[in-house]
């Protein structure tokens, strides 16, 4: 009598930010479908997002000294502790997810030292004995799809009926924070300043949205309270510093539209199925990092001088690629996306992000439109 091969214990590694972890969600679900235990190794900026992902049995935190702009010092004790912790868990397989400009090899070395039997990753660098599957990323691939490609070629497939969209665990009801629907969320901050409006420009947008009849809710982290207070002014409800990531998911889920830069809440909004007006500075390519799987409009000059530079601060005086976006463009984008409403002023029923879904995986091309500048408009419906 034949016996079924036991499913592996699998570790997925994504060591950078919350948005990157959220984009890994579809790949994580594919891994979970084919594993007896699925763990996620995250950096400190990604742990909260990792805990929101369906299919994750445990989240392990590691602050890698090769990730981020302010990495911790290299510590033999911390490294040894991680290797021992991973070794004790006896993982059979590992997938290392990295962006197109990152190397998986430092963590792949630690996984080998921890006794992980098989490791796969996208790698431009020759991996020697560190990778069992050296995978080559397809050019111009969206991050979510690139991670799914790796998972598939490592032998993991999405479960039947899973469309490959971003997902999080069902968020809490946050009506006690926001008041009743409908409302528009404006999230003015970003960890990378080049990817957000200046405070003055964000404040003008909040005032314009309010004057157009929208109830505006301004969100931000604990370190952004001064920013959100300034942007909200007397026009909007200020929730800066009020929510953790799970509660923020609830606030975004209740919104008609979210207006946000290319930052983590863009992908959190997509994960709860809310349309996004994305203020997209072209320091990274929109085809790889734009909102995924929800109706969206990109605003911003995608041909600006900073395109492809990965700059953290805008190298052009006045931040024209984003601050040059007019109020009329913002209002038109919100109207286009907020038009997905019923006749009573509420939102039309959207596909349930927490229920069964069917259909092909879909990506950033499902947006309503992409605005490259004040005059050029390319439909991507």
Question: In words, what does this structure look like?
Answer:
The protein has 14 helices and 14 strands. Mean pLDDT is 87; it is low at 340-349 and 355-381. It has helices spanning 18-23, 25-33, 47-50, 76-89, 105-113, 143-153, 175-178, 199-211, 225-232, 245-253, 264-271, 286-289, 320-323, 327-338, and strands at 9-14, 37-42, 58-61, 93-96, 118-122, 133-135, 184-187, 216-218, 237-238, 257-261, 276-279, 296-299, 369-371, 377-379. It is of the alpha/beta class and 381 residues long. Helix 2 packs parallel to helix 6 (143-153) and helix 10 (245-253) packs across helix 11 (264-271). The chain folds into two domains: 9-153, 3-Layer(aba) Sandwich (Rossmann fold), CATH 3.40.50.2000; 175-379, Glycogen Phosphorylase B (Rossmann fold). It starts with 8 loop residues before the first strand and ends with a strand.
Counting H and I runs of at least 4 residues, what is the number of helices?
A: 14
Strand order of the largest sheet: 9-8-7-10-11-12-13-14
Order of helices and strands: EHHEHEHEHEEHHEHEHEHEHEHEHHEE
- Please indicate the percent range of residues in DSSP E strands (runs of 2 or more): 5-15%
The CATH architecture of the largest domain would be 3-Layer(aba) Sandwich
User: Which percent range fits the helix content?
Assistant: 25-40%
Which word captures the global form?
globular
Structural class: alpha/beta
